[in-house]
Amino acid sequence: MRVNVTVNGEPRQADDVWEGESLLFLLRERLGLPGSKNACEQGECGSCTVYLDNTPVCSCLVAAGQVQDREVRTVEGLADGDRLDPVQEAFVEAGAVQCGFCTPGLVVAAHDLLDRVPQPSDPEIREALAGNLCRCTGYEKILDAVRLAATRKAAPQESGNR
Amino acid sequence: MSLTPAELTSAVSGGIGSSPQRPDGNLKVRGEFAYASDLWHEDMIWGATLRSPHPYARIVSIDLTEALQVPGVYAVLTHQDVPGQNRYGLEHKDQPVLAEDVVRYQGEPVALVGADHPETAQRAMKRIKVEYEVLTPVVDMETAVDDTPLHPGGNLVRHVPVRRGDQHAEAEVVVTGRYEVGMQDQAFLGPESGLAVPDEEGGVDLYIATQWLHVDQGQVAAALGRPLEQVRLTLSGVGGAFGGREDLSMQVHACLLALHTGKPTKMVYNREESFYGHVHRHPAVLYYEHGADHTGKLVYVKARIYLDGGAYASSTGAVVANAATLGIGPYDVDNVTVDCWGVYTNNPPCGAMRGFGAVQAGFAYESQMDKLAEALGMDPVDVRIVNAMSEGSVMPTGQVVDSAAPVAQLLKLVKDKPMPPLSTVVDLRDMPGGVSNTTHGEGVVRGVGYAVGIKNICFSEGYDDYSTARVRLQVINGEPAALAHTAAAEVGQGLVTIMQQIVRTELGVERVTILPMDTSIGNGGSTSASRQTYVTGGAVKAACAAVREKLAKLAGGRDPSAVDLVELLGDEVIDETVEWRHRATEPIDPETGQGNAHVQYGFAAHRAVVDVDVELGLVKVVELDCAQDVGKALNPQAVLGQIQGGSAQGLGLAVMEEIQTAGGKVRNPSFTDYLIPTVLDMPPMSIDVLELADPNAPYGVRGVGEPPTISSTPAIVAAIRAATGLALTRVPVRPEHITGT
After folding, report:
1. Stretch B269-288: mean pLDDT
2. Closest chain A residue to B28, measured at CA
3. Nearest CA in chain A to B271
4. Chain B residues inside the 8 Å CB shell of A44
5. How many domains does chain A have?
6. Which of A132, B131, B288, B510 could disulfide-pair with B60, CB 3.0 to 4.6 Å?
7. Count of domains in chain B?
8. Sheet holding A49-52, edge to edge
């Protein structure tokens, strides 16, 4: 089948999509956007989290055909050119990135959290990120990163510019 | 996306002792870092692996006819298509690339398919007809040696005895125990994957996520029957490793398909296949007897340790040696009798995972120390401190510990930390069971537990353990710029950052580029045994020293550090490659286990505070605190990251992580059924980092990655025991172990 979808603001088209293909496969293998990760492909790890019409979803659990005429925003669509989103910037600074395989999903999940709850408490951060597995960090520095990003977003003039 | 990983350049201050940002951090947060599973090549095909459904069976016949007829299939291969040696292995070449007449574990690769789409490959795989004659599997590690031999030499992979002092010593107080450790999985998030690209001369370039490029290269070349120069490996982005990428997975398979079809071939495991596709932590059964006097001083320790190596040896030999030589823990004991056996069974193959050997023994000897404290009516920390080893102590192997061993200090640090307050208001999110709303505090009991552990750092037993580093210095655009190149695998731990920091410190430059890691340079050794900062860090430091010698020659009689580097270098390019070794170790005596087997020892201690719902058996770890000596924190932020991540894996083994097998079959090969800690499971950590320099190591460093994984598990279980009064002799502790239902 043919799928038309807006990805990171750009209209995209893919042909010969199989019925069983996931949005994750569509993004990674057909649209050249491998940022969303294939860690479990059964909705347990959150590494493939993307926005679908502004709602975060596990792209491995969405059939490619379901995104026809809808909007997808991936980790590749968060930065403003060379300028990282405050969440991305905070992940690097806080040491929340080790192997980085969970990072795209966690960045999207944290980005969504801070859009909804600009100053989350620690229990709120934990609840919001509970669907994203990380095997390297023990999560402490991921919590640091989300706290840092929340502070930065509240006072954007202090945000780094790199 | 390019196949060759990006060069990583940072131009910042940030030498050793500081925490500059990782040079790959921006790529990773943008989703632009190329992991092995992200690679793409024009005209590439997809490989898939047909695996045995049986733990032990004879292959009667294989019929490929229908599979080959599926449109879009380029090749279907069996062992008959392996042009070189159809055997590989880290220590023993005992594992077939593709099974011949027998399969020895569920998931053993039998055939390969190359096709135009992963789904085509799956469809073709289902049309391969394999007739098996199912055999009775050997699954009990304690009796395996006397069971059906699975390999020509029988089922014993290695036995290591350690004998020290009086073998018939007696003591006033004796405690015994039998302990079990379940099979833990590394559960790295980036699945096994790689892309093999054939050249036009019969060679192949493999882009791969691994822990050791050169040992992969040797094994792949032997299986392909090609000289080393025709098998070139480049490290692709690695999504975690933790020991699970020390052995080959799809490396040879992808190269076979690529060479057979002439097409670039990509292979990516899904999560289920990943559980079958790599080795796990050895399950263990451990029998211990501790004898002490009335003050708590240990008189003797006896241990018999069984490790289940599964179907193939992998690194079982080294795991056995660690469990035996470190088997009594970081304690001074004059009389020691330890025997450790690693055996073949038809369970999944087991090999390296963070802290191997030391983790299994650590759960048992720390459980014993608590049991001893209870028998003596002593405080569990006090009984450990009474026996704590220190610099100058003699190991059960006779080796003198010749650098810091602050065991008592680490224990005191975690003991003296303030206790987390008992919650006064009911917040479900703080309760065992969380927002499942299983309790509002009724039936919840708090417990506190302690543990300390020991791990050898770097490769042991006389292994020639070295790394190769090349450092280049020149002026680029009017600025001094350095470049470093090694084959040492960055798997997420931050070696690329450390290498930049060392170059900055040694050469006084800011701009440092890290070249992609590949086999065009000499061996970097394995990213394991907590060794890369020590060994590859040592090699980079030594290469910088060689560069500085050349600078001194350029400077003539002048002090090179007093001359402007740009002026001094001019158009010169200084380019030095160095092989660097840590001090040599010795094999251990096969009868007595005596010998200076280890390079360095690392220590960490934990305190765990838990809340247990004793009615439902649910555990909430409230706080997990750690103290560790790291010799010198080259990058303090990365050190904390290692301690936090290592402690989390220990928490997983304590309360949730186990590959459950029945008759050799894996029952839970998914993240739905194999649980790893989430952010809700992992509590806040308070961490003390000691920096007691090891005079033998570069900058005084002590390996960081593994020690926190050892003491985390027994501390948590001790806390659950304290809360429940139960013996709890097996990890992971499951709810039914607590409720008795």
Report:
1. 98
2. A100
3. A40
4. 670-672
5. 2
6. B131
7. 3
8. A10-14, A3-7, A71-73, A49-52, A55-58
As a whole number of Å, the end-to-end CA separation of chain A is: 42
Contacts of A82 in chain B (CB under 8 A): none
Residues B118 and B468: their CA atoms lie apart, in Å, by 38
CA distance B474 to A21: 50
Q: Tell me, what's the pLDDT at A156?
A: 62
Domain that holds residue B22: 8-34+466-581
B216 φ, ψ (degrees, to nearest 5):
-65, -45
| Count of Cβ atoms closer than 10 Å to residue B113 Cβ | 30
The answer to whether B604 and B453 have CB atoms below 8 angstroms apart is yes
Residues B342 and B397 occupy one common structural domain:
yes
Is residue A126 within a helix (H) or strand (E), and if so which, with residue range? helix A122-129
- pTM of the predicted protein model: 0.97
Q: Is the dihedral of CA B506, B512, B517, B518 positive or negative?
A: negative
* Order of strands across the sheet that contains B129-134: B102-103, B57-63, B129-134
**A44/A15 same-domain check:** yes
Are B658 and B730 in a shared domain?
yes
Q: Is residue B480 part of a domain?
A: yes
- The C-alpha atoms of residue B100 and residue B86 are separated, in whole angstroms, by 9
Interface contact B644-A32, CB threshold 8 A:
no
* Per-residue pLDDT, A157: 55
pLDDT tens for residues B435-480? 999 999 999 999 999 999 999 999 999 999 999 999 999 999 999 9
Domain match, A12 and A40 both: yes
Do B299 and B442 reside in the same domain of the chain? yes
CB atoms within 10 A of CB B570: 9
Three-state SS at B675: coil
Q: What are the tens digits of pLDDT across the range B347-387?
A: 999 999 999 999 999 999 999 999 999 999 999 999 999 99
Determine whether the interchain pair A75/B31 forms a contact, defined as Cβ–Cβ distance below 8 Å.
Answer: yes
